[in-house]
Structures are given as C-alpha cells and as structure tokens.
Amino acid sequence: MNLAYYDVEYRLGRFLLTAVGIGLLLATVMAMNGIYNGMVEDALSIVRAPQVDLWVVQKDTNGPFAESSRVPEDLYRNISTINGVKEASPVSFQLLQTEFQGRMLRLQVIGYKLRQLGGPPAIAAGRPILNNRYEMVIDRKAGVPLGTKFKFGRVEMTVVGLTEGVVSNSGDSAAFITLEDAQELQFLKSNEAIRNDRSRLEADLSKSSTLSNVAPENLSPLLQGSHIANAILVRLDAWANVEEVQANIQRWTHYNAFTTKQEEDLLSKSVIERARQQILLFRIILLIVAAVVVALIIYTMTLEKTRDIATLKIIGAPNSKIVGLILQQSLILGIIGFLVGTIIISLTYEYFPRRVVLFATDQVMVFGIVVGISIAASALGIHKALGIDATTAMAG
Amino acid sequence: MAQVSVEHLTKVFGQGDTLVEALKDASLSVKAGEVVALMGPSGSGKTTLLRAISLIDPPTSGLIEVAGTRVFEDESVLIDDRLLRRQRMGIIFQSYNLIPFLTVVQNVALVLTLNGVSNREAMKRARELLESLDLSHRADVHPATLSGGEQQRVAVARAVVNNPAVILADEPTAALDSERGKAVMALLRQLGHEKKAAVIVVTHDERMVKGFDRIYHLEDGHLSVEELGAGEH
Predict the structure, then answer these.
(1) CB distance from B95 to chain A under 8 Å?
(2) Closest to B21 in 3D by CA, of B169, B202, B219
(3) What is the pTM of this model?
(4) ipTM metric
(5) What is the pLDDT of residues A248-287, one digit of tens each?
(6) Which chain A residues touch B99 with a CB distance below 8 Å?
(7) Taking CA B90 as the corner, what is the angle to CA A394 and CA B93, rounded to the nearest 5 degrees?
(8) Which of A11, A312, A314, A388 to mutate to test the interface with B (most CBs of B within 10 A)?
C-alpha cells in the first residue's frame, strides 16, 4: 500500500499548488539553461554561417570577434595561391545602431565580396544581394520587412532579403552588405574631415624639402585608402589538410590563422565566458532555493503528520515504510514540479527577448538534479519522522 | 496457556531525587479469549503498563511473554518491538488514531499489508471484516466523515484484522457517550472471544466492564486483581 500516493491524493489541491510553485522555480532554471544555450548558439551562428575552414586575422590577435583585427583586403590573393586553398575572401564586421519604427536597432553588419565567401548562409525570404552597392540582407529577428530603406551617413541601403537565426553573440541581428559598402560605412570620411586632412597634408608637405613640389590633391586619395577587412575567410579543397594549410598561411603571410573550431572556442571562452559563469551562478542559486523550498515543504508536511507517523510506529510499521512515505512524496513533488516547469518553459520560450534553446540533454540533467534535490530535501523530513516518539499517538 | 504474561515488572522514570517508580513489581496473566480491565485513578500507571507490555516504552526490569515468546527479560528487549506489535498485537487508542488520508477499508487493510499480505488480498479481507461489523457502507470514505463511535469501531477492526494474540485498548470509550462506549466494549469482548485473543482494556469507568473476566486495579504502581467471572457486572 503506497501511503505517499494516498496522502497526495487526499491533499491533491494543495499538493498541486505547491508543485506549481516548485515548477515555476524549475522553469526559471530551465530558462537560464535555454538562455545560455541560445547565447552560445547565437555567438557561434556568426562563425558557422560562412561555412569555411580557416579564418586569417591580424598577427598576434585573436580576431575578429574576441579582439579587433585589421588585414589588407587584397591579402586574400596571396592566400588563394597556397596549396590546398580552394577559395579565400575578405570580410568585415562592425556594429551599427540605427532607429527603426521608433526603436533602436543594433545590427552586426557583415561585409563580404559579392558571390564570394562570407555571405548569408540561406535566404529565408526575398533574394540574395545581386548588386555590388546599397543592398542589404538582414536577419528576420530584427523585425525589418523587405524593402525597408536604412540611411547610414551618406549611404542608403535597401533590405532585399531575410535570413533566419544569424545573430551576434550579443543577440543582435546580422545584416549582410557588400564589402565595398561596409568599407565605405567604416572608413569613408565626411567632407569636412577630408578637407581638414587635405589642409593638414598641405601644411606638412610645405615643410618637407623633398615633397614640397607634390600637389596635395594627388597624394590625398592614396592616404585615404579604405581597402581594409577584418579577416580573410578560407575554404579548402576536400583533400587538403587543415593543420598543414593553417601552418603554411601563418608561415608565408605572417598572419594568424584559426580553424573554425578554434574561432568558436575563442568566441565561447573569451566573449561569452563571463555571461556563462553568471548564468551558471544563477542556476546554482535557483537550484539551492528550490532544494530549500522542497525541504521546508516536506518538513512541514512531516510535522503535520506527526501523529499519523506515531500511529504507524505503534501499529508496527517499519522505518522503511515511514521513510518511503516521506521520500516518495518529496520525489512526487519534485517530479510534478519538473513536469510543470517543462510545460511552462515549452509554452513560453518563444516569447523571451533573447533566443532560448532547449536541449533534451539539459532537461535530462535538470531531471537528475531534481531527483537528487528531492532525495536530499527529504532528509530533513525523514530525520524528523524517525525521531517522532511513538507515544505521541497515545496522548488523548 | 497465557497469551500475555507479565512478571515483576518495574518502570522507573528519572534518576536521583527526581526518580519516580511508575510500576512496582507488577504481574498479570491473560489467557486466549479472556478480556480483562485495567483500572485505576489518573497517574496510577495504567497507560505506562500498556506501553511497557507493547514495548512502545519498555519497562525497567521484569519479564514479558507474548504468545509463548519471551519478548522482555532482565532489562533487555528480546525482539524487534515493531515486529511484535504488527504480528501479534492489536492496539486501540483513546482518540481512534485512524490515518486520515486513508479510507476506512485502507486503514484496516494497512495492518495486513504491513505483514506482507498482498494489497488485493488485504483489501478483500478488510472489506469482509467491515461487513461483519456492519461498516461496509462506510468502507470507502475517509475517517473524518465518520462519527466517533464509527471511528472507534473501525479502529477495533484495524486492531483485530490480523488475528493478534493480544489486543491492548487504551481508554477506548473515553471519547464516546455511554451507549456507544458500551457497544465498543461489547464488540471487544465478542472479538476477543471469537479470535482467541487476550484483551487488556484500560478504563476508568466501572460501568464499561460488564462481561469482563477480571479487573486489575493499579494504584501508585501496585497491581492487584479482582476476579469477576464473565457476566457478573
């Protein structure tokens, strides 16, 4: 005869309300797991999107995500000649903030060479960029419809296509534009700045005996070069050995080369590590709170049954029966709480402002922890129950 | 043969200046089918003796035998006290002590399942017993919905369902009116005879002991016996 089951059935309403409370706590833990997974997925989506083998970045840096990196745009030509390299192409990354329908919109802008590496992985709506200038493919998460026009400085961009699930490690939507547009946005100076630079150059040239006869308007365009990228993406031939090509690139170009896996590690360890620790701490605190709540509930339920437990002792119930009553109730409470939490998070995860990614393995882990917590939390109630004096039942 | 035999039992509480001797050389013997009363004023040691016999609170010294098995001797408990109670004893409380979250039939069947009887068989036997006690119509309700008299009859059913060698009842009529109290006592006598159990009933009400075989009087820890013969009171 399962006493725990009958007790739960007898006080079902109160028990379910308590379980819902525990479920809400556990739903928060699951949400934290999901937010962390979403953060990792988001961060890695930008590394995985171009589907390349190597990332070549500025020497002695961990760019382009963990640190800033600048490489000459035409570096890709040198890299393309290395044995095993199938394709190489420059890309740039920059954050832009603009206003859209009365709200601030932050975009992770990715500049790439048209019809080369680094473009949008798949188009969910609209079309890819076909013209070399002033077109943009943006992630659906930004909530920007096709045909929207954005003005950045002197440049006006039109949204021609939408991607799905390509965002930065901060959760900002990715926006793909051509490298030329990206370089203009990043490096092209305003007219005032150009005039100032030209005057400064003229003054400097007049002081130089060897350059005093050079006209500043001839030299100025050379000094205003904006052909800079943040990384060169490299895709290898199927037969090529990644480590070998990586070593060759580092040897011959004197730039750093990272495999995509290394770039993912760099991103997850250096960029989202602190957020991960923060969320881990939250999860631990919430689980401790859940354990304390379950323990107190079970303890209170045991106190309410003091006389019943004393009666059980007098009619000869062994300790295992009494321990089973409390332990099973604690487990039922934890398991119902887990189910409630799972239902709540399954119904709500889409409405979180950041992406929440739920993995079955995480849920299994939370279930294991809940079972562990329930067992540990029942210890207090069991200790109390075993200490109840049987003669309590004989009091009038 | 005595189903329960107690010899030279003492029970001491406290020590030094606070030492209280609740039982002093108490001896009694009850045979199968006999029903005896244990009477005495408040604080005389009646419940202490009951707790000692059932090993809920073992005595300080003496000897106890239940159904031919020595369970206490020379300051030592010789058996698992809970095993003794669930296999050989039925205990009835003053305030019924039915488990509130179990139905009437589950309360009765619980004792059987504790002794290893399958759930199905235990429920069947419990229902049969409740039917014989005219309680079958209340079998599937929770105790809180029963009257005091009905609850005590269920408690009696729980105490006898396992055919115990000894039934111990601690003031079973204290919370009942006279008529219901007499009915419960009559039931105890009847079941004691039918099931060949030794029945010891603690009571302070002399009107309730009609048909009992003996009365043991307990005063200041001393036990004395008064033979009645069934039907004298």
Answers:
(1) yes
(2) B219
(3) 0.74
(4) 0.88
(5) 888 877 789 999 999 888 888 777 778 878 888 888 898 8
(6) 3, 308, 311-312
(7) 25
(8) A314
